């Protein structure tokens, strides 16, 4: 019995067998042979970009029954060439974690606790505040009577993981609203 168990040790099979680097047969078990990778049973693969940091590594997102089942590095990405760091490798949990917050959370002024809001309500509240800030910070003319027609009521500072298309839309929206302080640090 003891000999049969020790004969299964991967390190023993590595040093006595032909798989000296232990990348193949030396580390396989009956269980390994019986299971199938989620990447092989997925319905489709969607190209994406890791949302964690400004490196912007390419990701292959594997989907089965419209659920994300696995995320791998995208070998076609010229930036990361199939690699993901530990954060990017774990990014599936951003979508599937049971602790993920999926409702709008709001703590009103003076409130001591968070409450759930319908998304439409939250969007209306944001729109109201933007319009109010735009109005309160509006400058029609400068001190010499020249036209400004701008608002200093709000500014935009985009994050590193906003992509070109998102920044394009944000710039268009905020400029149309009259904002002049619009910045981002996009790298993807
Ligand atoms: S995989 Fe890591 S290095 Fe690449 S974008 Fe994501 S967090 Fe950044």
UniProtKB/TrEMBL annotation:
Location(s), subcellular:
Cell envelope
Location of the 4Fe-4S Mo/W bis-MGD-type domain: 43-99
Q: Name one GO cellular component term.
A: cell envelope
Any one Pfam family match given in the protein's UniProt record, by short name: Molybdop_Fe4S4
Q: Which cofactor does it need?
A: [4Fe-4S] cluster
Q: Which Gene3D superfamilies match?
A: 3.40.50.740, ADC-like domains
Keyword annotations from UniProtKB, A to Z = 4Fe-4S, Iron, Iron-sulfur, Metal-binding, Oxidoreductase
What is this protein's name?
Dehydrogenase
Q: Which family does it belong to?
A: Belongs to the prokaryotic molybdopterin-containing oxidoreductase family.
One Gene Ontology term of the molecular function aspect: electron transfer activity
A Gene Ontology biological process in which this protein takes part is: anaerobic respiration
Give the InterPro entries listed for this entry: Mopterin_OxRdtase_4Fe-4S_dom
- PANTHER family assigned to the protein according to its UniProt record, in alphabetical order: FORMATE DEHYDROGENASE-O MAJOR SUBUNIT, TUNGSTEN-CONTAINING FORMYLMETHANOFURAN DEHYDROGENASE 2 SUBUNIT B
């Amino acid at each position: 019995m003891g000999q049969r168990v020790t004969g299964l040790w991967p390190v023993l099979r590595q040093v006595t067998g032909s798989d000296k680097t232990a990348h193949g047969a030396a580390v396989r078990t009956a269980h390994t042979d019986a299971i199938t990778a989620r990447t092989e049973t997925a319905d489709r693969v969607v190209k994406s970009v890791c949302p964690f940091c400004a490196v912007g590594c390419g990701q292959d997102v594997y989907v089965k029954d419209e659920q994300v089942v696995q995320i791998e590095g995208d070998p076609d990405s010229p930036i990361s060439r199939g690699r993901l760091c530990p954060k990017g490798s774990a990014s599936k949990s951003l979508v599937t974690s049971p602790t993920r917050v999926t409702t709008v959370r709001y703590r009103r002024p003076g409130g001591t606790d968070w409450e759930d809001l319908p998304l439409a309500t939250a969007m209306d509240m944001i729109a109201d505040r933007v319009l109010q800030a735009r109005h309160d910070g509006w400058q029609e003319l400068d001190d010499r009577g020249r036209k400004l027609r701008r608002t200093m009521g709000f500014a935009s500072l985009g994050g590193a993981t906003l992509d070109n298309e998102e920044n394009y839309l944000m710039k268009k929206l905020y400029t149309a609203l009259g904002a002049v302080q619009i910045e981002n640090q996009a790298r993807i």
